[in-house]
């Protein structure tokens, strides 16, 4: 039984980094201000000839597509008084792959949350562990999360291109992600710098969340220890 308890405990600990990371990805995918920030910073309107209002509409359409609210990523945009389909077939295939990856992220996020809650219930009611063990698990999970995110953030900071390529090689079963700026609008809408900024923002957000959770957990343990010492 001790072995089973340890397995459940460390499952609980490991669920935290998975939950925080997938939640950060979910937030970034749906945050229109992040898209608008990237469009402004990298002067996408000038690079594509599409005005800012149209770009905002494109971003909202992609968010809707990623969330299964529309059936296609294709969108008609206006440029210098003319209307045209924004994406070609290669880009549409890649965006479909991206949507599948995002849906997988949502699934993993929900699964991690459900597993975390289940582990807490099993530990608390099944194995009758005290609340201190759960709080310690939270602090361990936070520590692991911070360590992992700092490592990824440093990798991104010093070698983002290699990390970016590795991510695509692992995540996509084809080469449709290899786009040409001369022919493909998608890579002009979202240059590599956009993903660099998004990655560092996501890692930073997770580090901050994990640090806050870990700090609260350690603070609770410290206060209870001091109270116990005064009582003794």
Radius of gyration, taken over Cα atoms and rounded to an integer in Å: 22 Å
Low-confidence stretches: none
N-C termini distance: 33 Å
Strand order of the largest sheet: 1-2
From the structure above, extract its key features.
8 helices, mainly alpha, two-stranded antiparallel ribbon, single chain
Structure summarized in a few sentences:
The chain has 232 residues and is mainly alpha-helical. The protein has helices spanning 2-30, 32-41, 44-48, 52-66, 89-126, 131-171, 185-189, 192-231; strands at residues 76-79, 82-85.
Could you explain the architecture of this structure?
The protein has one domain. The chain is 79% helix and 3% strand. The chain is built from 8 helices and 2 strands; from the N terminus they run ααααββαααα. Strand 1 (76-79) and strand 2 (82-85) form a beta hairpin. The longest helix has 41 residues, at 131-171. 25% of the residues are buried.
Would you spell out the secondary-structure blueprint of this structure?
Layout: H1 2-30, H2 32-41, H3 44-48, H4 52-66, E1 76-79, E2 82-85, H5 89-126, H6 131-171, H7 185-189, H8 192-231
Antiparallel strand pairs: 1-2
């Amino acid at each position: 039984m001790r072995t089973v308890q340890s397995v459940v405990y460390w499952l609980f600990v490991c669920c935290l980094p998975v939950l925080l990371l997938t939640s950060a990805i979910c937030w970034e995918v749906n945050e229109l201000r992040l898209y608008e920030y990237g469009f402004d910073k990298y002067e996408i309107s000038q690079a594509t000839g599409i005005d800012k209002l149209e770009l905002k509409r494109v971003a909202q359409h992609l968010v809707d597509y990623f969330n299964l609210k529309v059936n296609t990523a294709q969108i008609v945009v206006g440029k210098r008084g003319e209307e045209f389909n924004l994406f070609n077939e290669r880009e549409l295939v890649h965006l479909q792959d991206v949507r599948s990856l995002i849906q997988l992220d949502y699934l993993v996020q929900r699964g991690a949350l459900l597993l975390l809650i289940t582990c807490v219930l099993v530990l608390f009611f099944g194995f009758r562990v005290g609340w201190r063990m759960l709080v310690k698990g939270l602090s361990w999970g936070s520590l692991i999360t911070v360590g992992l995110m700092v490592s990824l953030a440093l990798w991104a900071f010093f070698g983002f291109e290699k990390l970016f390529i590795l991510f695509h090689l692992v995540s996509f079963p084809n080469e449709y992600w290899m786009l040409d700026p001369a022919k493909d609008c998608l890579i002009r809408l979202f240059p590599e710098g956009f993903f660099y900024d998004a990655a560092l923002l996501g890692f930073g957000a997770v580090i901050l969340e994990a640090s806050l959770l870990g700090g609260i957990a350690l603070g609770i343990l410290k206060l209870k220890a001091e109270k116990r010492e005064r009582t003794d």
